[in-house]
Design brief:
Blueprint lengths: L1 H22 L4 H5 L6 H60 L3 H65 L8 H14 L2 H13 L4 H17 L3 H11 L8 H14 L3 H14 L6 H11 L1
Length: 295
């Protein structure tokens, strides 16, 4: 009992640290609008802030790894208890067949009742373990999303810096800049403003290189808002972009959405598509794990 309580405390502390790590954002506007810095200084400052964010991601990955080890240890301990109880039941059944008497029979009935209670508790622990694993996978996926976001922002910053050096001054919509602004709103947690900006870019036919990304973040915002039905529709639209690099991400999120609405059948279908079409995806092993758990 003490061991289980300790493992649950470790999980809660890990979640708390993860929450603190993900709450910090990168203030690009403050750097870009600082007139006292040259373009090269701004790039250096942005790289420093990105490096700090990567350090936070590394710590979050370590926390997630520690949590998974704790959950695995909990499951092994739980399986050992169940095996011991089953052995005890077999032993008591053998003794019952050799003894006769109302008092002994009453004791056996009481023992069976206690075993049934313990089995119910064991089943509850299995369910709790599965829920914890599901939440941990979602946290890992959020870490992966942050990593992808940092890479995207780094590329966009290079493009913006290049435009500053070349003195580009177009009167049309600067899709790269507007995408960066929308994504920065998302990172700060201003999901309504971010959603409005991403949808504005999609409605104005943003370039194909960024269109699938915009659609993915629109879907992600609905996922964060717990609107899983709408999130499934939005993630499905990402699959319509032929050259999108977000297809495996979208399929994985669709599977998580179906888990959240208790539709295991469609969740398995989404994970099976990852296994069939994207064997090199970072979500391949996770999809396999979910399918095995459902079976």
């Amino acid at each position: 009992m003490i061991k289980i309580t300790s493992l649950i405390l470790i999980f809660l502390i890990g979640c708390s640290n993860t929450s603190k790590a993900t709450s910090s954002g990168i203030n690009f506007d403050q750097v870009l609008k600082n007139e006292s810095l040259s373009d090269s200084d701004k790039l250096i400052e942005l790289q420093i802030q990105i490096s700090k964010q990567e350090d936070q991601i590394l710590r979050m990955q370590n926390n997630a790894s520690n949590l998974k080890k704790s959950f695995d240890s909990l499951k092994v301990s739980n399986d050992s208890v169940i095996f011991f109880l089953e052995s005890q039941i077999d032993s008591f059944r053998l003794e019952q067949s050799m003894l006769i008497g109302p008092e002994f029979s009453n004791n056996i009935i009481k023992l069976y009742n206690k075993v049934n209670i313990l089995e119910d508790r064991a089943f509850f622990m299995d369910s709790l373990y599965f829920d914890l694993v599901t939440d941990m996978v979602i946290i890992e996926n959020q870490i992966a999303s942050i990593e992808n976001s940092i890479k995207e922002i780094s590329i966009i910053n290079k493009e913006i810096s290049s435009e500053f050096r070349e003195g580009v001054n177009d009167l049309v919509i600067d899709y790269s800049y507007e995408y960066k602004v929308a994504h920065q709103m998302y990172m700060k947690g201003d999901y309504d403003s971010s959603l409005e900006k991403f949808q504005f870019l999609l409605n104005n036919k943003i370039s194909n290189d960024l269109a699938d990304n915009c659609q993915f973040w629109v879907a992600q915002i609905f996922f964060i808002k717990n609107d899983y039905e709408q999130a499934i529709n939005e993630f499905s639209l990402v699959l319509n972009y032929s050259n999108s690099n977000k297809k495996s991400d979208a399929l994985y999120k669709i599977g998580l959405c179906y888990i959240k609405i208790n539709d295991s059948t469609n969740a398995i279908k989404a994970f099976q598509k990852i296994i069939k079409n994207y064997p090199k995806s970072e979500y391949y092993s996770r999809a396999n794990e979910f399918i095995l758990n459902f079976k």
